[in-house]
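In this section we walk through a basic example: taking a raw amino acid sequence and producing a predicted 3D structure, encoded as discrete structure tokens. The instruction is simple. Fold the sequence below.
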Amino acid sequence: MEHAINGNISCFCLVNPPPEVPSNPSPADGSVNKPVTTQLSWESSDPENEPLTFDIYFGTDTNPPLMASDHSRNWYDPGILEFFTTYYWKIVAKDDKWNKTEGPIWSFRTQSSSSSRLIASSFFNYCGLASNDTVRIDLLIENSMIPIDAGGVDIAYDSTLLTFLSCEPGSLTANWQLLDCADLRTHVRVGGFDTIPIPPGSGGSFARLNFLSDCCSTDTTMSALLCPENPTDDFKTLWTVCGEFRCEVYTADGDANGDGNVSPGDALCAFEGYLSFPDAPASGCGTTGWDVRSDVDCNGQITPGDALCIFEHWLDGSCTFCGQSPAEPSQPLAAGQASVSIRDIQLDGSEIAAVVSVASVPNLEAFGFEVIYPADRLDYLGTARTELTRDFDRIGSAVLENGRLRLGGYSTEPVTAAEQTDLAELRFRMLSEALDGMLAIQSYVDDLQGAEEVTADLGGVGTKPVFSQYVLYQNYPNPFNPSTEIRYEIPNGVVNIRVKLSIFNIEGKPIRTLVDTKQGTGAYRVHWDGRNRMGEDVSSGVYFHVLQAGNRKLARKLVLVR
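The resulting token sequence is shown next.
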């Protein structure tokens, strides 16, 4: 362009063109369901290839505010965004000649939820027979999208139902530099950080929160939500999910397994619960409220007598539960009504057998007691029935801890033990050549309740085990499901004899070989898991375990019930 100056001088002035209008936005204008970790990018150039900088406007307002100035790259990370939120943004491109070009306002919406979640676990509590006041809530991370090296969140809770106690690291943060929490009365704030992040795609516990509840203070069901709120840092990429705390109320209705019906299965659950108490029984019996529902005589403890009552209630209604009417809890039997003794302790190869006898029990339907024994000297093997308890519906035992076991049983047909009569035979494997210590029987329930504790001195019983002959013992348990133990002995003086232990079906066809090797003097134990040589479960029925050692052959019958 030519200009005259004082009518004498002419000059040509060049005008610098502005940058091109920013275009090709990512995410695309109007797009939806975008990740909360979305980054912004765009295209913009200068006609003369001069370097450009950018002012970035970003926010949830339709006229977004300035977020960053003089940004040198054509992409920008706005940080972790909110779920299901519409964001607006525009770019102003600038060159180094103070020219600038403003782009249009674009928008996008973030995803409504995520498979990456931050979950407060649920916890159902109730007023049970065992102490059950501690509530444990896990803060769980599920399928994280990004590495997590820092995060915090508030867990809202109902302080009228729960009292906060403490927090501890979870499986994902066991080695973190810092993880801590604070009780803010209506919520617990928990967070932490570490230089080594939790990898993307991880799942597990970030932290565990411990609360105290008192469900016994109410006779109605109460519940409240535990909700993660106000996530910070990397937790903002996670979709928060509330958990539930509930105080349930249960009655002594006999439905021990919680399936909505009273059946023989509930009687079995109650019996198994007696053996495992205060722990919940296994095999699907440990549903919430199992102990209250099993205590059908409302005496504050689960016993084989409760199992018997549940069975008879199902069978013909002859036993009524205390929870069905305003009945008073049953009272313990008067002390001294039953008599218990350890009649004999016998040495049997590498084992000892302690015979427990009872007297002054005119109608024995249900019983239970605990046995204390020196665990460093004896290993409990099982209990054998006697003539008195041969036809009991159920006899069982469980080791509660080293040196303490619980044993009990029940029968729908009462038996009489007016005079001293053998009740059960306890079998132990000797762990040393000589024994010392005491064997004690205590904590009686049901028809033995009130009997005095009895003890027996084990000193002098044990000598070096003597194996006088080939012995194949009855498997234990029998009947069994899914596995059983088979024991056998090889007599003194035998060295490297070929021993074969096999399972046969009732037709005499071989099912599986458990042992096929050379062995010498000693006692042996083998487990069969109810499978054939192909590793397949065999069907219920009668089988035989057969021991062949040299020219000796012994066999016993076993029963598998699935």
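Looking at the output, two observations stand out. The longest helix spans residues 264-276. DSSP finds three helices and 38 strands in the chain. In the next section we compare this with other chains.
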